[in-house]
Amino acid sequence: MYINSDNQTFNDLSIAENVYGEKSLFSLFDDTCSGGGRKQMKEWIMHPMNDLQSINERIEAICYNDMPDLTINREELDFIEYYLGFEDKPTNISRLNSSLMLFVRKFRNDPNRYVVERGTELIKKLFYDLKLYAESITENSPVLIQAFARTILDAFQLAELKKIASFFSLGKRGNYQTDYCDYFFRYKRDATIHELLNIVYQLDAIRTAHNVAVKSGFCYPELSQDKEFCMSGFYHPQIKNAVKNNWEIKDGNICVFTGSNMAGKSTTLKAIASTVWLAHAGLPVPASFMKCPLFDGIFTSVNLPDSLRDGRSHFYAEVLRVKEILQKIREGKTCFVVFDELFRGTNASDAFEASEAVIDILKKEKGSIFLISTHIIELANSLQSDKACCFCYLESEIKDDRLVCCHKLKTGISESRVGYWIVKKELLG
């Protein structure tokens, strides 16, 4: 159900946290009303899916505009979690036992009793808030929301819950009634309580994602088993005043990105990969439109380190990274893969030959999509007639003795060569 990925990709895309100090993708959606909702959102972002039905059901729920309101109180939910976490769970209940415990409590101060009394009252309140919510769900509501409603209403068919409801109708809130609720909530049906809490947290995450999409202008991605892969108005969400771009891959399975230093190749690749990641998490993406194939894996190689511990050079680390990803693909996985500056860890001649050899291998893996950036213009030119490849570049130029990078993605191969100008400008005066 979940896609394949790894720590290298997590760090490259700053999924939940980042060793390089960059803001995470999770921070875009970190505005839930409850701690449990926050955990749920983080779980979604950290574990994208490769199940099309589950992805589409989540997207359908998030984009729904007529969701009934459910009050979510962080302090009350935190208290319920604290109450449910008590280790001294009651294993039986009777009026005699309840009366005996009331007698014992009169002669000693029992601070746990306040927790039990408030915890049971808050859960009863939550039950009836959820019941009202479930009863407002119609057959036109999203599939996922209808499933939540059925789970909630099924819980109300439990005999114990009907007995608790009778306490309210008779106006009874005495010692035995509290003990009965405590026994039901924390021992007999604790799994049911946690299931209902999980629904609350998912609704919190759904509402948060919806609000983010509206506030930030994110779109809802369209995923399918088709090969169509295109984006309009996409951008990196953590870049202030980011330039929006369009991108697509029609023919073949390799897109080669060229452009000078500082033109924005790495940022653009991260932006595309981030939208693919969020789309598979069933979340809105920073773009105005997106169609994406369903992948089994997402892998990137952007900030690939060498290993002093293992005595590996950067070049050798790159070779092993390519090998590692190919092994995943050959297990039958369809993958989305980003290689930023492939084989930057060696001289230009070796990098050209090694890159050419790797691309010959990658173009045979037709089910997967590869985005490769390179400084080696000769490599891109040598591939121009290859139908497995398409080409994009980010333009830059020296204008009035200034490096101008418009960060606009264009079709074709860049001819910009500004490296020497930068060295001369910064080091030679």
Uncertain spans, ≥5 residues at pLDDT below 50?
none
Estimated radius of gyration: 28 Å
What is the string of SSEs from the N terminus onward? Answer: HHHHHHHHHHEEEEHEEHEHEHEEH
**Strand order, sheet with most strands:** 6-7-8-4-9-10
**What fraction, in percent, of the residue positions are helical?**
40-55%
Task: Provide a descriptive summary of the structure in words.
- Helix content is 48%, strand content 14%.
- The protein is an alpha/beta fold.
- A hairpin with a 2-residue loop joins strand 9 (389-399) and strand 10.
- The mean pLDDT is 86.
- It has 15 helices and ten strands.
- Helix 2 crosses helix 10 (190-216), helix 3 crosses helix 10 (190-216) and helix 7 (143-155) packs antiparallel against helix 10.
List keywords for this structure.
4-stranded mixed sheet; alpha/beta; about 425 residues
Summarize the structure.
The protein is built from 15 helices and ten strands. It has helices spanning 7-12, 35-46, 52-63, 74-84, 95-106, 112-135, 143-155, 159-169, 175-188, 190-216, 265-280, 314-329, 348-362, 377-382, 419-427, and strands at residues 222-224, 230-234, 245-248, 254-259, 289-293, 297-301, 335-339, 369-373, 389-399, 402-411. Strands 6-7-8-4-9-10 form a six-stranded mixed β-sheet, with helices on both faces. The protein has a four-stranded mixed β-sheet with strand order 1-5-2-3.
